[in-house]
Design goal:
InterPro entries: 3'-5'_exonuclease_dom, Exo_C, HRDC-like_sf, HRDC_dom, HRDC_dom_sf, RNase_D-like, RNaseH-like_sf, RNaseH_sf. The protein is an alpha/beta fold and about 425 residues long. The chain has helices spanning about 10-15, 50-60, 100-105, 110-115, 125-130, 145-150, 155-165, 185-195, 200-210, 215-225, 250-270, 275, 280-290, 295-300, 305-310, 310-325, 345-350, 350-370, 375-380, 380-390, 395-405, 410-425; strands at about 35, 65-70, 85-90, 95-100, 115-120, 140, 165-170. It has 3 domains: about 1-225, 2-Layer Sandwich (Nucleotidyltransferase, domain 5); about 235-330, HRDC domain (DNA polymerase, domain 1), CATH 1.10.150.80; about 345-425, HRDC domain (DNA polymerase, domain 1). It has 22 helices and 7 strands.
Length: about 425
């Protein structure tokens, strides 16, 4: 550690004044956090040589000690969500940075890591890019999710380390373009710090969850993350274009679709973040104006810049294609939903369902206060809406619905009867 100071122990990080019933967080936040400005063992140079990677794989084999992992992407700069840096730390091997650009993939590490518990912060963000690099966990511990279950007020890595360990991490490069090479030394320092005390944080969070009788909740959540199938492709991803809610006619929606598809194709081929090719504001403006010529297109303020004027012919081709699309092939204004409509439409058209949802939300908010866990972690809002829409007031039937939707046993135990009572109260 910087300055030769020892880190705070977990015993010091946790309160000695916990309530006897174990309910609620009572973590003591250090009044003055100790700065952790660099890895304790000094600067870390990224591994770029496949032979060195192979040696690392051999050195890591045969151990079941927890291993901290993290990954850095370039989401705001690149189309892909691949990992451009992967960070590892285990007690016996220290801190390691891997360069997947130079190494190709990291598959040779899969077998050595398979028997170990992976410790990540906000695992769902990093697991897809780690899987793309050839790494998939069999067990994991997610410190961010642990913090949510424990009801801690701030669960970002820096704040959580400060709350639980009394350390202040040097931060500041999370949104950087990690695809550039060579990477600046201060970025590498930042990356190494992301896993520097992750194992200690894991141990502190396990102790806090145990104190609150929530460790089994966490184990169920972590197992669900590991077992989760790969996300299915989103239907009509172009409908997520910012500003599309103002577009209410089908021809204009087709303009949005064709511009989005043209932008997406270019972004994928060039591996550039789509908004850097054409911002959503430009797509929405073109759809609203329906320009009939290049001159009309570049007259729009969002297309008046040098870059967009240079590409105006391309974008006009996409708009022309939208104008030529047969009426029967135009997209609907709204998709046919597989499930209940958005809750903001219930009050006028389905007041009974709206009343059930209001009662359920109030009961869940009270439960959230009681167990010191956010409402959204008690049960997904989508599942709450589905149950309230159906109006089922039988707890066993609701339990089956939640089970079929992959709710965890701890969630079902806490919420099924509550939802049944909420539905029965408004019957």
């Amino acid at each position: 550690m910087n300055g030769g100071q020892a880190p705070l122990t977990i015993d010091r990080a946790l309160s000695d004044t916990a309530d006897s019933d174990g309910a609620g967080p009572t973590v003591e936040i250090a009044p003055t956090a100790i700065p952790l400005l660099a890895p304790r063992n000094g600067p870390v140079t990224p591994v770029t040589d496949p032979i060195a990677l192979s040696r690392l794989a051999q050195a890591m084999g045969g151990s079941t000690s927890p291993i901290a992992l993290d990954a850095e992407r370039a989401s705001g700069f690149r189309y892909s969500s691949r990992a451009y840096v992967v960070q590892l730390k285990r007690a016996d091997i220290g801190n390691v940075l891997l360069d997947p650009i130079a190494l190709g993939d990291l598959t040779c590490l899969q077998a050595p890591l398979a028997a170990a518990e992976w410790v990540l912060h906000a695992a769902s963000q990093d697991l897809p890019c780690l899987a793309e690099a050839g790494l998939r966990p069999t067990t994991l511990f997610d410190t961010e999710l642990a913090g949510r279950l424990a009801g801690l007020p701030r669960v970002g890595l820096g704040p959580l380390v400060e709350q639980m360990l009394g350390l202040h991490l040097e931060k500041g490069h999370g949104a950087a373009d990690w695809s550039i090479r060579p990477l600046p030394a201060n970025w590498l320092n930042y990356a190494a710090l992301d896993v520097e005390v992750l194992i200690e944080l894991r141990d502190a969070m396990e102790a806090e969850l145990t104190r609150q009788d929530k460790l089994e909740w966490a184990h169920q959540e972590f197992a669900a993350i590991v077992a989760a199938p790969q996300a299915a492709p989103r239907i009509d991803p172009w409908r997520r274009t910012s500003g599309i809610h103002k577009i209410r006619d089908r021809r204009s929606l087709e303009i949005v679709r064709q511009l989005w598809l043209g932008r997406d194709d270019t972004a994928r081929r060039r591996d550039i973040a789509p908004h850097r090719i054409l911002p959503d504001t430009a797509i929405a403006a073109a759809a609203a104006a329906k320009p009939a010529s290049v001159a009309a297109l570049i007259a729009l303020p969002v297309f008046a810049g040098r870059v967009q004027r240079r590409q105006a012919d391309r974008w006009m081709q996409a708009i022309d294609l939208a104008f030529r699309t047969p009426e029967v092939d135009l997209p609907p204004v709204q998709l046919v939903l597989d499930g209940p409509p958005p809750a903001n439409r219930w009050k006028d058209k389905h007041p009974e369902a709206a009343a059930r949802l209001a009662v359920a939300r109030e009961a869940l908010a009270a439960l959230s206060e009681e167990v010191s866990t956010p409402v959204e972690n008690l049960l997904s809002p989508e599942l709450v809406r589905r149950v309230c829409w159906a109006g089922i007031n039988s707890a066993p039937e609701i339990e089956q619905i939640l089970t079929d939707a992959y709710a965890r046993p701890w969630q079902i135990q806490l919420t099924a009867s509550l939802l049944a009572k909420a539905n029965a109260a408004t019957a």
